[in-house]
Amino acid sequence: MTAKHSAGIRRPQLGWTMLESPRFVAEAGMLAMAWPMLLRAPRGDGHAVMVLPGFATNDAMTGLLRCYLARLGYAVFPWELGWNLDQHSAGENGEHVAARIEAIAAETGHKVSLVGWSLGGVIAREAARRDHGALRQVITLGSPFTGNPRATSLSTLYELLTGNKVSSDSTAERYSRGHHPLLVPSSAIFSRSDGITAWENCVSATDARTENIEVHCSHFGFVSNPAVFWAVADRLAQPEGTWSPFVPRGPFAGFFPETGHHPIP
């Protein structure tokens, strides 16, 4: 994605941002009602899954998603690195997250899948670029890993809490290469009605094992929306060493307006 193209990406419209809270409550309500149906989602081999929280949140915010994945039989791990404040939590060069991945792989004897919400997904992709040997796949949920780093409703708060500058050279470098496919299978789940970050920042270039999955969802709904939970379960259920694009099936198919190999916009 070129710098010129990235500059044309704008933060979400104010209306979508203002609707984030009521949409999150509604999606959580749908999740409660849909729980029995969600337990009929595809099930995998029970491998290790680490879930990374979003910016300025901690493991409590991903509790519902982790509970669901555990009910499907996975060995689910929180990230256990406190509040997600980017390098302050993950390590200046991602060393804290790398150590956590290695510890989980050693404990379980299997490769680890990463599921990262928002900033957690950005960190998950960076971890995969650093060392993918212990990783099985990466799933991001509304994660702004490319495009225009200022195209978010939280850019000022991010700078205040982390001390990082979204216009810094390091941030520019991260975003410039962020859309490149990883060396492990990856799925970027995004929503055009995301009220926090521009959806164009949340999609990857695609190849034979890289996809972008569009869903109707709020930004905070990525950790409470039943359709997102179903898609994550579907992706995790694929046997190790195999991969095929996501195909909407089951009771939540209508939440996915389009899917598959979306090109970079």
UniProtKB/TrEMBL annotation:
Top-rank lineage group of the source organism: Bacteria
Keyword terms: Hydrolase
SUPFAM superfamilies with a match to the protein in the record: alpha/beta-Hydrolases
Keyword Hydrolase: yes
Recorded GO MF terms: hydrolase activity
Protein name: Alpha/beta hydrolase
